[in-house]
# Entry
Amino acid sequence: MARIVIVTSRIAAGTDGVGDYTRALAGELARLGHECLAIGLNQAGPSPWVEAFPPTALPAIAHVEAGSGRLEAARDLVRRFDPAVISFQYVSYAFARRGLTWNVGRRFREIAGERRVELNSHELWSGFDVAASLHDRVQGHAQYRLYRRFLGQLRPEVIHVSNPTYVEMFRQIGRRAILSPLFGNVPVTDSGPPPGTEGFEDSVEPVWRMLFFGSIHAEWPPEPLMTRLIAAAGRAGRKLVVISAGRIGPGDPIWERMITTHGDTCRFVRLGERSAEAISGLINASDFGVSTSPLCLIGKSGTVAAMLEHGLPVIVNRDHPLRGIPPLEPYEGFDRYVQLDDRFEQRLAEALARPRTRLSRLPGVARQFLGDTGLMP
# Structure
């Protein structure tokens, strides 16, 4: 049994994607017999800034508002808890304005002391895509230089990232990063959608249910995908039902434009936010999902990870060429990604015919964490 501290920005359930990842990882590590503290350095409001897994592992702590006092309190808490490993679940924008991390690495190292440090970098610098504006490229270059400074200050023994593109970006700066897949943000169940859920009623005519889960990125192009999907559904004797679950976010205009363009030929259903258990049932009852993230960064998407964990085929149609980085295929689940190419319709048919396997990645990710940090033989 080992003691582990995981530090991130916010840990209150449902308020931050990386915070939810931190809580889930800490819970799984506790299930495997370890004691974990999750620390939210920027957690504000009534929610606690420290949570223990299991709860009995929590030392006595005082309420401290986010700010410089929180840093000192975290340092004292780590000293008293004395973990074998301290993990930083890191997104630069969560700790620095415009992602410019001047001395964040030094502050993190003050918390860790001389203990072994693992860094899980959920974001790197911006502006590395070919289509980036001059402003984004200039800001991204500043982030890049400061991120290298951050690494020098923090001196992590282990670095984890969620996708091969980030592995390559670390390689190009002379650092070794280990691929650790993102696990889904909903539990994997065998259930179906709650009775009476719109879009999932018994249908007289055969349908294909196409699921958007979570935000639709503002850069995601609906065409020519929608036109080709409607044509493929017609040739298969099906009607297309397009379903959105969760918050669409910046993709609202895209959703409305799809309804305007294709509302006469397929059905659109917007369900909004649902419980995690209900989302699992919606995924199970869908025929395929759609990723609005590009293939090269798809490993960052917790919603795509959830669909893959449920065995759902995922269509990826967004091109996103990167500057100085060759095209890289996702290392896992690639047979379940359906790309919009000359073989699209054949790939879709093959994916729909393939048996589904439901399996959560979380236990494997927790065991990899223990192995890579030296806590498991």
